[in-house]
Amino acid sequence: MLSYRHGFHAGNPADVFKHAVLVTLIRCMQEKPAGITFIDTHAGPARYDLTDEWAQKTREYEAGIGEVWPTRSQAGLLQDYLDQVAALNPDGALRFYPGSPLLMAALLREVDRLVICELHPSEQQQLRRELGKQEQVTIHAGDGYEALTRHLPPPTGRGLVLIDPSYELKDEVDTMGRALEQALRRFGHGVYLIWYPMIEGREIDMEVLPARLGLPEDRWLDLQIEFPEAQRLGRMWGTGMALINPPWRARGPLTELTEQVFQGRVHHL
Ligand code: SAM
After folding, report:
1. Which of 42, 122, 149, 172 has the most ligand 1 atoms within 8 A of CB, as the residue to mutate?
2. Which phi and psi (to 5°) does residue 255 adopt?
3. pLDDT value of position 1
4. pTM above 0.70?
């Protein structure tokens, strides 16, 4: 069993970037009326209590959501994302932080569907408590990569897959590459959003993916940010979100978000 628990890291600077990108991308895709199936392959427990023992042990959220929370009444490109966090904290005190499944569930339209996958039994329990009763949501208690073959191509015809592993396993990118090869065979025009950390002394090479998957220039986009010195998380000095089949209408907003809010860079092939 894997030991990683996202409760120690929820709301940290990497989460803020990941979730702001996710919300921006979803909103852009929803400009078209046709339904979308969202698949979260590595869901975590959905809701985090920042006052609990784990969050308080690392206090990583302070340099992340803690930094941007005070700007929530006028947050510019982060407004939509911060509104989702604010919805969990109606009295204005920051206590709860939404994980990716909760963010996606909150943004579902009637025509959309959400599949969430999680391997850890405790996180599965929390997911069931939080989202188990929502009709549009399917919880897959098992491997997220395997779930892709089961749920692709999606019945809605359009789809966004979020892949957000903890990278505990050394061969994660290879496993992901294999899963993506299959997924693209089944659902070649789906949008795939992949989170990855940038860690000193442990390079995670995402550049191998477009080559392995035979993706041409216009089907790969990589958004990267470096954390300011004070926000570094141990050896993690930055983070990235790689996109397969980035929708045209999302390119501008995602570039603006990455460059203007996070002072990051957008890499094309
Ligand atoms: N996506 C979440 C968010 O943004 O709030 C955080 C996810 S956390 C980085 C990774 C999660 O994936 C952990 O809860 C872990 O238990 C789970 N996990 C690890 N390997 C998995 C696999 N092969 N399939 C499904 N879940 C997995």
Report:
1. 42
2. -65, -45
3. 52
4. yes
